[in-house]
Amino acid sequence: YPRRHTLETQLSKFNLTEIEAMLRSYTKVLFVRDPFQRLISTFMQGMGSSPSFSSFVQDVLDSGQHNAKVAWKPLISLCQPCFVQYDYVVMFGSLRQELGHLLQRAGLPVDSLLPKFTDTQVQWTYSWLSEQMFRELSLQQKKQLSHFYRWDLAAFQFASSFLSD
């Protein structure tokens, strides 16, 4: 898309005609991750000031969706998948397979560009960690988190998400 010379990178900074032209001219890829795993990752990276995972989750819930930080904001509000028709949706946990397909579709050599992923090991680790962290939460927190991420859970098939129940 012959974009005007600007430093703006958010679609909301462009007018509707420009947005439509850009979206038609690009291959749109959306990378998604289970919301509960995103919370765990954010907590483990120390992005919250809470001493326990349970208190961190409570801080997230208390902040509400409109005041949520990008690290834990629902994906639906960040990526607008109902308005933007993404060409590919790539799930965390199957990156090697998905990225290999994307590179192949782009006509690029898959083996030379694709880093080594250990998807199975990552999935097992997050499954174990999710189970441990989920146990720390009260029933009320679990219900509130499921409600907080209800649209993400409806839009994307996070088959093994603890929040789906």
TrEMBL record:
The keyword Disulfide bond does not apply. Keywords: Carbohydrate metabolism, Glycoprotein, Golgi apparatus, Membrane, Signal-anchor, Transferase, Transmembrane, Transmembrane helix. Its EC number is 2.8.2.-. GO terms for biological process: carbohydrate biosynthetic process; dermatan sulfate proteoglycan metabolic process. It is found in: Golgi apparatus membrane. This is Carbohydrate sulfotransferase. It is a single-pass type II membrane protein. One of its GO terms (molecular function) is sulfotransferase activity. GO terms for cellular component: Golgi membrane. Belongs to the sulfotransferase 2 family. The keyword GTP-binding does not apply. Its main location: Golgi. The gene is Chst9_1.
